[in-house]
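Q: Sequence in, structure out?
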Amino acid sequence: MSSFYTSLSGLNAFSTQIATISNNIANLETSGYKTSTISFAEAISSVISGSSSAAVGNGVTVDNTSVTWTQGDLTSTGNTFDLAVSGVGFFIVQDSGGTTYYTRDGGFTQDDAGNLITDDGLVLQGYVVNEDGTLGGLGDINLTSYAYVEPVATTEISTTLNLSSGAEVADTFTSTIMTYDSLGNEIPIEITYTKTADNTWTWAAGIDSSYGTASGSGTLTFNSDGSLAAGTDPAITLTLTNGATATQTVTWDLYDTTGATNDTVTQYSTESMLTDTYQDGNAAGTLSSISIDENGVICGTYSNNSVVELYQAALASFTNTDGLNMATNGYYQATASSGAANIGVSGTGSYGTIASGYLESSNVDLSEEMTSMIIAQHAYEACAKLISVEDEMIQTLINAT
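A: Exactly. Output:
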């Protein structure tokens, strides 16, 4: 009778293998899916005369189910919130109860609350990017609080400017640089330059009277090679009457901290010309688009042309990836065997990079799965045939008694 159970163990084992292969094939188009494989072990029922070399086999058991972690191909989707990890790392997501899962499926969307979520509503985790560029705490990625940016008053300006060395004494040149007040109103500052002698110009700042008044003036002295002589950064004071902060000081960045020139203002023989300006303020703006770079940094572009780093998506890795517990829908959970998650960001250490607008395809090899299916099917049929033969043998024995 033991031969029945031996053959039955084969039926059970190969049925499990066929089910595993079927699941792999069914998930051929599932983003981030990783192929599962099973391994078998011989079942031993007894040992003859205490010798393991004379052990009696009792069929087969499914020894282990493992996951093949090879990289899947990246498929373009054109959707910014579709993310794929190229290399090591799992996206970190949390359900409404705070339970943490890990996944390679980066198909995210934005819900009504502004969260970046999976199809099942789990929220992508990442680090807030602080104003100084450092990373804050790990938490839900939510874009609602970044729907707009507040106005920032200008505190510093710089100019890339040439004043013609060929100008005559008393010749003037006027340039305009746009700044912002505390309400986000544009305040054009006009700076008028007047040549007073060889290598010497004076300057004076002003604004339109509808905004208020400006005070700021000084002298620019140039060296014989056309570079600006050493000095200190001048200040322009705006006295505003438009409802914004009444007094606003704007520093003109002409020199570095040692007093040496930044080479942004020159006196060469070419015509007087303003070629570039910079100021550190901005108007209020609403979020117009989102972009995500290969390091998982989520940037918002606003209607005022400001580009702000908002979040950086977090990635997790494990000492023993094979020890992860497989949950539903392509999610995994950490176990004692996998070890606790090592959390970081893409592009650092051993972590891979993130591709926005792509999804990682399943790593299922269809031809390999079909070949395995055929082998498992024949093995299953052979075990079934053995049971049939064993039944006939027993029937023959019964009929002979």
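DSSP finds two helices and 29 strands in the chain.
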